[in-house]
Amino acid sequence: xxxxxxxxxxxxxxxxxxxxxxxxxxxxxxxxxLGVTMAGxxxxxxxxxxxxxxxxxxxxxxxxxxxxxxxxxxxLPRDTSAFTDRAAELERLVGSVRASQERGxxxxxxxxxxxxxxxxxxxxxxxxxxxxxxxxxxxLFVNLNxxxxxxxxxxxxxxxxxxxxxxxxxxxxxxxxxDVGAITEARAAMWRSRLADKKALxxxxxxxxxxxxxxxxxxxxxxxxLVTSRKRLxxxxxxxxxxxxxxxxxxxxxxxxxxxxxxxxxxxxVVDELVRLCGCLPLGVSLLAARLRHxxxxxxxxxxxxxxAARDRLGELHAGERAVAATFDLSxxxxxxxxxxxxxxxxxxxxxxxxxxxxxxxxxxxxxVARRHLEALYDDHLIDExxxxxxxxxxxxxxxxxxxxxxxxxxxxxxxxxxxxxYYLAALAVANGHTVRSGAPVPPAPDDTSRVETPxxxxxxxxxxxxxxxxxxxxxxxxxxxxxxxxxxVVRLAAAMAPFLRQAGPWDQAVALHRTAAEAARHTGDQRxxxxxxxxxxxxxxxxxxxxxxxxxxxxxxxxYEAVDDRRGKAEALNQLGIVWYLTADNEDAARAQTEALAxxxxxxxxxxxxxxxxxxxxxxxxxxRFDAAVEAQSExxxxxxxxxxxxxxxxxxxxxxxxxxxxxxYDIAARHHQEAFDIYLELDxxxxxxxxxxxxxxxxxxxxxxxxxxxxxxxxxxHFTELGERFGRANSVRHLGVAExxxxxxxxxxxxxxxxxxxxxxxxxxxxxxxxxxELGVARGIVGERDGAIEAFQRGxxxxxxxxxxxGEAEVLNHWGMLLLTSDEPTAARRHFGxxxxxxxxxxxxxxxxxxxxxxxxxxxxxxxxxxGVDSLRAAVTVYRRLGVSASVDDIERLxx
Length: 898
Hints:
This protein is mainly alpha-helical. Among the domains are: about 85-240, P-loop containing nucleotide triphosphate hydrolases (Rossmann fold), CATH 3.40.50; about 250-415, no CATH class; about 440-685, Tetratricopeptide repeat domain (Serine Threonine Protein Phosphatase 5, Tetratricopeptide repeat, Alpha Horseshoe), CATH 1.25.40.10. The longest helix has 25 residues, at about 410-435. The two termini are about 40 Å apart. InterPro entries: NB-ARC (IPR002182), P-loop_NTPase (IPR027417), TPR-like_helical_dom_sf (IPR011990), TPR_rpt (IPR019734), WH-like_DNA-bd_sf (IPR036388). It comes from Streptomyces azureus.
């Protein structure tokens, strides 16, 4: 069942992440004894949903680095060269941190407050760079947008999702759901656990309230948190540091340094008045000095006269506002007209930070010209430079630019948003060309994007890095476009972002996006677009294991597609419905939906859709223990994947076929398929999938008697999973090793490993993994004489398996239980268990469990009726074992018969 699920999942990127919800509920593979486990899918999906850019630790993509590998997180903005001496404040902060560390005490939160423009962020960043060596595990910077014009404050849950992803937590393991409070709490707990033993620095910039930042605080005593806010945030165990305007002497020093002129050439009295007129705020002083530096013919007195005039023009403002706004106005009026217009357009940008491509779209200029404008505005201190050649407006300057823009044509705002959204659509089309799987549909760029300059994205890694960088900006553009009733753009942007959000999440963001898109499509009357949005909503809901909501959305999508006779859309929605029904064990409904989808795909000649539907249908057949039908469907899917050149689809179909053949006892064929899949993963440089193939090869080796080869394979897989941070995969490798120890006679070590795996499965919420571990624990506990504990394990495991509808697993546990009863001198009860297992095994055509049941029945008859009885059952078992190549069991029975 598992690898069929894998094959289907990887055949369409819309499926990659979402199987985890099912895994946590259903994913113990049908045969525990085979050791084929649900974790393989988890690692596969983790490998295929590689979305982190090189600057963030995550799963590898095109050699970006191993998933979950230990990496030092460094995301502090660049330290400003114009930082002015705040020796007293810095000494107090550094001294506080040093003292706490030397005493071994927990580091208090340091709150840095002060008025706008006073330099809170610059101070925190400068201090962060000074202290970085004391926090070797990473330095993170998060802008909470507490007072950013045009932006709502970042919600704690959203910030936590970004922090967890940055810390290497696979997206699929970040909690999601509709209860915002519960999800925030769950993410906060995970974040605290992640940093529990770390020494890291976290700057939470621009906080709106203590409530906003409290869930982000690490639990470990070794982490330092610096918070900046315009408000005086009060809470226990904090160090509050107020950053005031610069002392006049320091303000004068900063002005002289940035003006590029000798102090004696400026006139101290004039400079004193200039810094006083701008309130001695670093932002204002920097702007004034830049004006003088860029006008060699001006004297300081000339600058003073212009500043006084500007203050007079802004007389309606309050004194504090007027002090800084006058410096803005002076700098703005000094710009050339085309640069003034470009600056005003920046005020319309819905996002936070931008690059020259976005600037070009906003300003209706080329990227070259936009870059020139941005660099000039940076030189003029009107924008801040961010890492990666990106720029952002200080909150006060953003507000000023928006105010200037509001004085002009009211349509400028709408048109600017239209332009930037159109740019993002064009860039998303390029990015999706690298990230969407071969043969899958790529949302096209609008017709009017031919003249739009897009970034040079040369590889999948480039595209994923760009998508991660721009994600928040694009979602902000969707919100702004929706607020301006630009519904067509909302629908298109949501569709273009869908492939990335499926993989990268967080899925609650995707839910909000697709809901917005569905409502926007309703406004426009576009039923096809509404169907697309609802289908995406259904897929994401499935990822979240919210199956009733997924079914509702997908049924609505089918209805919308039928209204416009969109057969391909209907087929996609039907196939997704089939997957949900498969996950909820509604097998007949699943088969019906997948068969109907397959027929539609064949009518349309859509080959990738056919492969996906066949793979899904194969999964359903396997779940219904129709192994021949599963092989037939999966073999046809494999042929199509090969025809399309889809290497991932090919590899995972091979793995799926390997598992089916293993269930059917064709171990040589199973081993060959697994090896072929491993070779493809090796070619793709995919360590996660290599580890899964190693586990599955190990299972075949164990079943055919090569225990040492099995142990080696599982140990290698365990090493990979541990290094990659793949917890599901690691749990499965541990369990496989536990089975190997049990088979070789070390029951105590087997129990230790199996209990470790059981704890991991329970922590991860995997009922299937729990059942697998319980089954094997029952056997191991029986070996060491813990009869009651063994029976309890069997009972609990059997209950889970019956709830999951897993008849293969049920037969396996019944055989194990029967053997425990037989060795406990209860042959009559044992024979009943073996009889039930035999009926199940023959019904589903599972030869290994059939042989085990026959052997058990024969041994029971031999024990009850005396030597010579049960021979027919024992010989029948030998026949099946020989066909399977399980020589050890044959030898045991033949010794008994002799």
